[in-house]
Design a protein that fits this description.
Number of strands: 19
Radius of gyration: 31 Å
Number of helices: 22
CATH class of the largest domain: Alpha Beta
Distance between the termini: 89 Å
CATH architecture of the largest domain: 2-Layer Sandwich
Largest sheet: 5 strands, mixed
Shape: flat
Structural class: alpha+beta
Strand order of the largest sheet: 10-9-13-14-15
Oligomer: single chain
Strand content: 15-25%
């Protein structure tokens, strides 16, 4: 509801506390600080930030010029926080007032900005302590999938699905005796019956019949849509899978594979085909949605297939403590009993390797990395891009060989992707570069702090772009020394200071230029006169270009 003038004046009389934060902000207000206050208020249960009002009582409206476009500010807050934070503008005779409505965090979650969690401490902000964060994350309550489903019986489970699970479990555990178990014993051993053989929600999600799910857990369904274009309207193909996961997992992949175009690329005399959607990452994306969605919410999992893109949208945000930035090395299964059952039969790894496999597959096939763009507190949105971005990079990865690729970690793959795309490498990926050099996948240029890394010459040869390699690598050491010598020879008796010589080789660090100059001096080609800022370098070689 819009804020009324009466409501605003009522706020002015109240003490600034748990639900209210007043800021004068006459001329401007720092957006980063607004972000942190939104995080702090949400973590304290939600509240309101009022800009354009004095913060000391008796308060008065002074007006604010901050954030002239409230809609743009609201969009910026959503982009950085992943939550909708309405920003309301009130124009009053006393001046313009902005009201920022901050919702409360969900139970078991905490808001953060760039990985930092805040709370208010008097008139300032402070980071949440470890024990405060642990208490918030512990609010999520018991594992929903491990709870008994009141009223559900073995008749609500599909025997064929249980048999498929049993067979996979026997193969995964290398214990073929499991094949001889009955359905009841299989469910008991897998801990899918609880509290006196009551059917758990995990059993219903995995093996439920259509009638059983419709009666007890209708939201445990998956809706598939194929859309031939981005246009709104009915999907070209739609199918609802309301049954236990084991009943439809293979049928869904076959449905996706029906429109799975193959992309061809040439490698010397051989033409190779690459599927737009590789089976492994697609199955992993669907498994993640089934295993980690919030079944307490009423929505369904949606899988939307486009010509070159696959979207998997599941109800409930990322589990507490998990962000798109840390998701490859942090695990917090929302439905632990369900994840354990899937791990028993080899469908997922308890260590949470699903996204790792998706990322590695994307890099090997020259496709963009999986994206969580659009993920919010109420849903996780995972996008797999199917278009091959760089066929030559695919050839390069193939030429590294399977043995080498198997030895790479996910971070190695991500480091290669950064080098191929020319991105800046974060610290965790920089640590992988020496190993990539040893494997022949990358090359180091320079020494010490000035070391740079590029993809190896073999890649650029496969690209048919040896010139690009030369440009990326830069000139070799002898060529750089020749450039310095040529410049000083032309300067004659004037010589040149170090600052001027650095302009000759602008891409090299100062330490490298100094090393080159010392080598030339040791070779008897240069001399140095003066010290410190008066030091100048001179050539002792004749200028062959000077007219006699």
């Amino acid at each position: 509801m819009p804020t009324s003038v009466a409501q605003l004046h009522q706020w002015l009389l109240e003490p600034e506390g748990q639900r209210l934060e007043f800021k004068e902000a006459k001329q401007r207000y720092d957006f980063e600080k607004l972000l942190k206050y939104c995080v702090a208020l949400a973590n304290e249960g939600g509240g309101t930030i009022v800009l354009g009002v004095t913060d000391k009582r008796p308060r008065r409206i002074v007006g604010t010029q901050a954030f002239e476009d409230p809609g743009r500010t609201e969009a910026g807050l959503h982009k950085r926080l992943g939550h909708r934070v309405p920003v309301e503008e009130l124009r009053l005779p006393e001046g313009r007032v902005l009201v920022v409505h901050v919702p409360s965090r969900l139970p078991g979650t905490a808001w953060n900005v760039d990985g930092s969690y805040f709370k208010r401490a008097g008139d300032d902000l402070a980071p949440l302590a470890d024990h405060e964060l642990r208490a918030m994350f512990a609010e999520a309550g018991p594992d929903f999938s491990a709870q008994p489903c009141p009223g559900a019986t073995l008749a609500d489970l599909e025997p064929d699905s249980i048999a498929l699970f049993r067979e996979r479990w026997a193969r995964k555990s290398s214990d073929l005796r499991k094949r001889e178990l009955g359905d009841l014993q299989t469910l008991r051993d897998a801990e899918l019956l609880v509290e006196g053989d009551q059917v758990s929600y995990a059993a219903l999600i995995l093996f439920g019949t259509r009638a059983g799910l419709t009666r007890w857990l209708a939201q445990a369904e998956l809706v598939f849509e194929y859309r031939s274009s981005e246009a709104a309207g009915p999907a070209a193909d739609r199918e609802e899978y309301r049954a236990g996961f084991f009943a439809w997992q293979d049928a869904l992949w076959k449905k996706i594979n029906l429109r799975n175009d193959r992309q061809s690329y040439q490698d010397d005399f051989f033409r190779m085909d690459l599927p737009t959607f590789d089976e492994v990452p697609v199955r992993e994306a669907i498994l993640n949605a089934v295993a980690h969605r919030d079944y307490r919410l009423g929505g369904s999992v949606f899988v939307r297939q486009f010509a070159k893109r696959l979207e998997v949208v599941s109800p409930g945000g990322l589990p507490p403590g998990i962000t798109p930035e840390n998701i490859i090395d942090q695990q917090n299964p929302r439905n632990r009993r369900l994840a354990e059952a899937l791990a028993r039969c080899g469908l997922i790894e308890r260590s949470g390797q699903g996204l790792n496999l998706m990322m590695e597959s994307a890099v090997r096939q020259g496709k963009p990395l999986p994206s969580f763009a659009g993920t919010a507190a109420h849903e996780v949105r995972l996008t797999l891009e199917g278009g091959v971005r760089n066929p030559a990079f695919v050839r390069f990865m193939e030429r590294l060989g399977e043995d080498t690729l198997r030895s790479f970690s996910t971070l190695d793959y991500l480091a290669l992707e950064c080098l191929e795309q020319g991105k800046t490498l974060p610290a965790a990926l920089k640590e992988r570069l020496p190993g990539l050099v040893a494997a022949g996948a990358a090359e180091a240029i320079g020494r010490g702090k000035g070391t740079r890394y590029i993809l190896s010459e073999a890649l650029y040869a496969s690209l048919g772009a040896k010139g690009t390699y030369t440009r990326q690598r830069g000139l070799d050491r002898e060529t750089n020394k020749t450039l310095l010598l040529t410049h000083l020879t032309k300067q004659g008796e004037q010589g040149a200071p170090l600052a001027e010589l650095r302009q000759v080789l602008p891409t090299l660090p100062e330490s490298t230029v100094r090393d080159l100059l010392r080598e030339l001096r040791d070779e008897g080609k240069l001399m140095l006169r003066g010290q410190r800022r008066w030091a100048r370098w001179f050539s002792v070689m004749p200028d062959l270009h000077k007219p006699l």
